[in-house]
Amino acid sequence: MSTLYLQIKDDLLKKIKSGEYKQNETIPTELDLAKQYQVSRPTIRHAIQLLVDLGYLEKRKKRGTIVCNQKIEQDFTRFIASFDSQMHQKGLSTQTKVLLFKQEIANDEVKKVLDLTENNLVYKLVRLRYIDNKPNVLVTTYIPYQPFSSFSKIDFSNTSLYDSFKKLGRPIHKVTRLLEVISSDETTADLLNINKNSPVFYFHSYGKDKDDKTIEYSISKYRGDINSFLFDISNTN
Fold first, then answer.
1. Which CATH number, 1.10.10.10, 2.40.30.20, 3.40.1170.60, 3.30.110.40, labels domain 4-67?
2. pTM for the full model?
3. Which tens digit of pLDDT belongs to each residue from 147-203?
4. H-type alpha helices, 64-201
């Protein structure tokens, strides 16, 4: 069997990620794959089992081996880290498109969250974030213009917001998140490439510095079909 099964596993995984083998559909039989790769069935079986163990494939009676609906485990609910760093640690590629970045007068909701006075300016930053070339989350972030006026020169399509806070000596020290599940509206569905009224995870995030001052208010809409969230709960008794 040598390492052939590893090469076949990698090739099958490539076809799964590219969409050649689509989610919830069966892949070719072991016999067909053995003929295709010109190897024995045990070699194919070993390669398939590795992908089953990794959660990419599932064996079902009377149906064969199907491609699982892959979900990305988001663990920002457990610790503070940038979107890019979390995904890169999982071996996933990321891309960010800045849809809007402007200064505006804070509305009543933003003013209250960021503890601003009348007519204070904020940045409104809207980003569409991709994982492995698929739109994953739409994020709208509000940041006080002062003391972050230098942010106007930053290209947030390739620069981390959290790293930018840190460089100015105001790193995010604590984050509070509120999670709801809502139905996507037409605009969100179009941007995230999902059907209208599909479920999305809807987060309100409040990022505070070490002085307990809220310097980031983000509203995030995560696709419900490809994301899952991990929460750690400890017994404090």
1. 1.10.10.10
2. 0.70
3. 999 999 999 999 999 999 999 999 999 999 999 999 999 999 999 988 899 899 999
4. 83-89, 108-114, 161-167, 186-192
